[in-house]
Design a protein that fits this description.
The protein is α/β, with parallel strands linked by helices. It has a single domain, classed as FAD/NAD(P)-binding domain (3-Layer(bba) Sandwich), CATH 3.50.50.60. It is built from 9 helices and 13 strands. The protein is globular, with a radius of gyration of 18 Å. The chain is about 40% helix and about 25% strand. It starts with a helix and ends with a helix. The strands form 3 sheets. Strands 1, 2, 6, 7, 8, 9, 11 and 12 form an 8-stranded mixed beta sheet that branches. A hairpin with a 5-residue loop joins strand 4 and strand 5. The chain binds ligand 48H. Ligand 48H binds next to helix 2, strand 7 and helix 8.
Length: about 260
């Protein structure tokens, strides 16, 4: 066993996969529940999917359940998604279904990769490529470089479609709107801001508003609430799972 071989093999494997993803069908920004579900279902259909996560650990807001207590609630309608990703659940007397958030996070990460999605961590999307009034890709940088504010120029990935699955931050849509004179597909033409907690309409709103917000750019998961001015819902995750699934169905149609 040679140390040099270990290093060479890691670098070769990483850069082969990254080079292969410089042009892709769909870039999903953010590996929380909605992005991972969307990525898994798209990849399963043979669509080339690249998921970019700025943190070391994908999984977004799943890990902490509610207030750090490790169970997440899921409603009945989202059970098929749990089953597609082989995640176990238990019915509670409240009628909700309870999922171990650690199993949910790790199951969605493992499932998305096993279904064929390419998931890269420690990559932050800091900007977009715009061509003829359409989003045509993303501008990426090393998360550590950005944390330290090093003046390092970014690289780019070209994609047929980009998805903002960045959660509360709605980072991609916010950047698009801040840096460009564009009108989004929202009632005000701008991101409208998330509202206070009201679980039931929030869950419905997230699914309803999973859509194209600007040509080539879609939103799913919690970022739809922030972009379309909907309520937050707390630690119930069915809406996130179903939003990711809906997004995959829309893009499967577009790409076929
Ligand atoms: C790369 C980025 C960037 C960037 C952010 O927050 P998430 O878990 O997102 P969702 O929408 O799939 O799920 C939301 C859910 O976790 C939640 O917060 C709920 C249900 N809240 C309800 C409530 O009331 O509070 O994951 C988003 C991911 C994270 O891992 C970020 O690190 C990542 O996106 N991310 N990755 N480039 N610019 N911005």
């Amino acid at each position: 066993m040679k140390e040099l071989d270990i290093s060479r093999s890691i670098l070769k494997s990483h850069f082969n996969e990254l080079l292969n993803n410089l042009t892709t069908d769909v870039v999903i920004v953010g590996a929380g529940p909605s992005g991972l579900v969307a990525g898994g279902y798209l990849a399963e259909k043979g669509i080339k999917v690249t998921i970019l996560e700025k943190r070391l650990s994908p999984g977004g807001g799943i890990w902490g359940g509610g207030m750090g207590f490790k169970y997440a609630a899921v409603q009945k309608e989202a059970i098929p998604v749990l089953e597609d990703f082989n995640i176990s659940y238990r019915e509670d007397e409240s009628g909700l279904f309870m999922v171990d958030s650690i199993e949910l996070a790790s199951g969605l990460i493992f499932g998305a990769i096993q279904k064929g999605a390419h998931l890269f961590n420690l990559i932050t999307v800091e900007d977009l490529i715009l061509r003829e009034n359409r989003v045509a890709g993303v501008v990426i940088n090393n998360t550590f470089a950005l944390m330290e504010h090093f003046p390092i120029d970014p690289l780019t990935i070209e994609a047929k479609y980009v998805v903002d699955a960045t959660g509360h931050e709605h980072d991609v849509v916010a950047t698009l709107s801040r840096k460009n004179d564009v009108k989004l597909n929202t009632p005000t033409g701008k991101p409208m801001g998330e509202r206070s907690l009201f679980a039931e309409p929030a869950e419905k709103g997230v699914i309803e508003n999973t859509k194209e917000v600007y040509p080539g750019l879609f939103v799913c998961g919690m970022s739809t609430a922030a972009v379309f001015g909907y309520y937050r819902m707390g630690p119930i995750f069915g809406g996130m799972l179903l939003s990711g699934k809906k997004l995959s169905e829309i893009l499967i149609k577009r790409l076929s």
